[in-house]
Design brief:
This protein is of the alpha+beta class. It contains 6 helices and 8 strands. The longest helix has 16 residues. The radius of gyration is 16 Å and the shape is globular.
């Protein structure tokens, strides 16, 4: 288990499959994760098995409540790099900082426990909230792949981002400093 300030990341269990099925078929999760077709329960099982073979998948929990999924994949040992993916599947938990906390917690694990050099991701170009959140976690945009996905009737760019250890440490320190400041009522809206 990996603890953040607001979340706990725990391994995926078979009892999570119905939640994953519901989340991964949610219209907004579907859109922003750029899925190609609806998921069956068998698809979920195969997806989790693949994620376990190729990486480290986790469930994001707030208290005891599962709210999303996060993981590392695409490990390249020689280069000490990997990919990260994440979504909050419970709409009631969107826009409250749980995604950022989960990403920071997993990055801390990746850099400090796994001794990685860099973590990368891609996001849809129209997912402004996620891209902004990733920037607050230290990610830097490396490329924009034009019209990479045909999604809901139109072409959407992919944004490729990465963060190295130093960028992450600065972002984490900034996050901790911000958490010490009094709340001014600023909220990210959905």
């Amino acid at each position: 288990m990996i603890r953040g300030d607001k979340v706990l990341l725990r391994p995926i269990e078979e009892t999570d499959y119905p939640l994953l099925h519901r989340w991964m078929n949610h219209p907004e999760v579907w859109h922003y994760m750029d899925y190609e077709r609806p998921f069956s329960m068998e698809d979920i099982k195969e997806d989790v098995e693949l994620a376990r073979r190729e990486g480290e998948p986790f469930i994001i929990c707030v208290g005891d409540r599962p709210v999303g999924r996060i993981g590392l994949n695409r490990f390249r040992g020689r280069d000490r790099t990997c990919g990260i993916y994440m979504f909050i599947g419970e709409p009631a938990f969107w826009g409250q900082g749980f995604a950022r906390d989960a990403v920071l917690a997993l990055l801390s694990y990746a850099f400090e426990r796994m001794d990685l050099h860099q973590v990368e991701l891609w996001a849809l170009g129209d997912n402004d909230r996620a891209v902004a959140m990733y920037r607050r976690c230290g990610f830097v945009e490396e490329a924009r792949l034009r019209e990479r996905s045909f999604n809901q009737g139109g072409w959407v760019d992919h944004i490729v981002m990465s963060v190295n250890r130093e960028e992450f440490l600065k972002a984490r320190a900034s996050s901790r400093d911000a958490n010490r400041e009094p709340d001014r009522g600023d909220r990210t809206s959905r």
